[in-house]
Write a structure and sequence with these properties.
The complex is a heterodimer of chains A (111) and B (112).
Chain A: E1 9-13, E2 18-23, E3 31-38, E4 45-50, E5 55-56, E6 61-64, E7 70-75, E8 84-92, E9 105-110
Parallel strand pairs in A: 1-9
Antiparallel strand pairs in A: 2-7, 3-4, 3-8, 5-6, 6-7, 8-9
Chain B: E1 4-7, E2 10-13, E3 19-25, E4 31-37, E5 43-49, E6 56-57, E7 65-66, E8 76-78, E9 87-94, E10 102-103, E11 107-111
Parallel strand pairs in B: 2-11
Antiparallel strand pairs in B: 1-3, 3-8, 4-5, 4-9, 5-6, 7-8, 9-10, 9-11
Chain lengths: 111, 112
């Protein structure tokens, strides 16, 4: 799996958009970008994933650069319940399913 | 409500004892996984199963064994627990290896 780099922590005001960056410069052509989050003491929760096109679902949007070397997870209207650790994971090919969780980004949403 | 359950929620275990952590899903997912999470570290894959009857080793398989006798259950066994296996254990499942994973609530295990 390609290695990912994320900022250790970020802050966001409630109601504003939270933009979480992730670098994955060694990503291969058949590898997907997945985002999960983990709210304190709970199991990780799947958010969204993509290959090369931008994706949107009810939780978030995923913007992947044209060269696929980086991506941004966007929570359009952050709430206090979005405070969590966000993990950017690259997986695919023969490593599919074998997720490698790094340190992630601690997102704190403030009132 | 469909989902994935783990038991027990927490356990304190003496070193050298045998322990089986249980995981059950009712989503008819083919793939299942066991991870451990230690303070300051991300989740690390212990074992996985692509489908009933098959298992594979993850990143940290030593000291653990798994079985997949049917689709729904994926127990994780510590044959002789050691203090370094103190951790929070998460089970997960996905429709196939190529799909997003759904995680259980975790089991907090302390080995003394």
């Amino acid at each position: 799996d390609a290695k990912t780099t994320q900022p250790t922590s970020m802050d966001c005001a409630e109601g504003r958009a939270a933009n979480l960056p992730c670098n994955h410069s060694t990503i291969s052509g058949n590898e997907y970008v997945y985002w999960y989050r983990q709210i304190h003491s709970q199991g990780p929760q799947y958010i969204i994933h993509g290959l090369k096109n931008n994706e949107t679902n009810e939780m978030a949007s995923l913007i992947i650069t044209e060269d696929r070397k980086s991506s941004t997870l966007i929570l359009p209207h952050a709430t206090l319940r979005d405070t969590a650790v966000y993990y950017c994971i690259v997986t695919g090919g023969t490593s599919y399913g074998k997720l490698t969780f790094g340190q992630g980004t601690i997102l704190t949403v403030h009132p | 409500i469909a989902g994935i359950t783990q038991a027990p929620t927490s356990q304190i275990l003496a070193a050298g004892r045998r322990m089986t952590l249980r995981c059950t899903q009712d989503m008819r997912h083919n793939a299942m996984y066991w991870y451990r999470q230690d303070l300051g570290l991300g989740l690390r894959l212990i074992h996985y199963s692509n489908t009933a009857g098959t298992t594979g080793k993850g990143e940290v398989p030593d000291g653990y064994s798994v079985s997949r006798a049917n689709t729904d259950d994926f127990p994780l066994t510590l044959a002789s627990a050691v203090p370094s296996q103190t951790s929070v254990y998460f089970c997960a499942s996905s429709r196939t290896l190529n799909n997003e994973q759904f995680f259980g609530p975790g089991t907090r295990l302390t080995v003394l």
